[in-house]
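Field reference: sequence -> structure
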Amino acid sequence: MDGSVAIATPVPLPSFLKHKSAFWTAILVGAALRVYCVAFTNGTGDMDDWEDHAQQVLNRGLIGYYHANSFANHPPFISKVSALILQIATVTHVPFRILFRAPFALLDAGNALLLFSLLPENRWRFFGTACYWLSPTAILISAYHGNTDTAVAFFLLLTVWLATKERVLSSGAAFGASLWVKLPGILALLALLALFRRWRIRGIFLLAAAISAFLTYLPALVQDYKIVFTNVFGYRGLLLQTAEGVPLWGPSVLLFSTVVPIQAWPEKYLRPVLFLLEQSWYIAIAAMLLVSWLRRHRASAQEVCATIGMAYAVLFGFSDYWAFQYFAWALPFWFFLRWWFSIPAVALTSAYLYSLHWLFSGNGWLLGKWDFLGHPNLPLLVLIIRNIAVSFFFVSACLFLILAIKRQPTSIEASS
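Structure field:
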């Protein structure tokens, strides 16, 4: 013995432990960012709108509020829940903006968990889930924005997951419950039916979904079915543009911001183009349903999720009326598509939404008061990101339609 102290040679961590360590670090970072947004930021103008909705429901009653405000388009259940949250906020002195956004941040954690469960069991499973959880799009919409769109993806993912467990009644009930919060999940119904290969099972699923959905609509329908149909079922989205008429999304961006300015269009061409843009909502839904129908024989959980991701991408690509926080409907489903779409789609929506939120909130930490009307024009960098994002979704939507018609595989495999 020479008295020297032996120093143990460090044993390198196995690669799978390094992999999981990075994954859990990503989960903690994403959770911290959501807590920050919920607790310290004010949110968008939608947050103020929801607080006003809740107050009006308390003051006028649900049906009275539907009659008083044609923009009162939220389903009865979530309208009543918002009023309850406002009452809790009054009693506890916890700001409404925190109490309202916290449940949807938690639902987004459910989105990540369901996404992880449904992705193929390989490295992409960890990477894809981490990318979703860290994406500014998911963080902003679920924890900052102040709206309910995160719930659409959650209930659709839950519907698929329950179907994989052969729990048909529960799957149908979960799909019906999605309509308690927001209606756009109904657009994925055709794709979801592919999960069930027999019409008897589909019938059970649809019956469970109908019963689940109408449980919370029935009292309002009994009181005044006309106003419920007009305000809730008749809502079709709004054209998003600044006070100066600068569009935030849609084919109008391509036609009037990247091709020829609207002022330069001859009248004989402008009128039919404006008519088509006005009908873009219907055109987009028709194309979305066509993609779902053409892929109806692709019945695995991963293929159905891919179909839903494509279908909503088509909706965003062809419509002037759905964008911004509505990306939440589709975001987790894009990870079931090939990398050439999923990675650019998440990156572009994240860059665009974060740049807009930075602009309208006044700083990169999103701590300022939302000032949409104070920015009638968009900076050049934001316009460039917008144009690239809109072009990418339009081209992708066309490609998805072509591939669906040709019946070529477009969803990812575990190794791709």
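Note: The mean pLDDT is 91.
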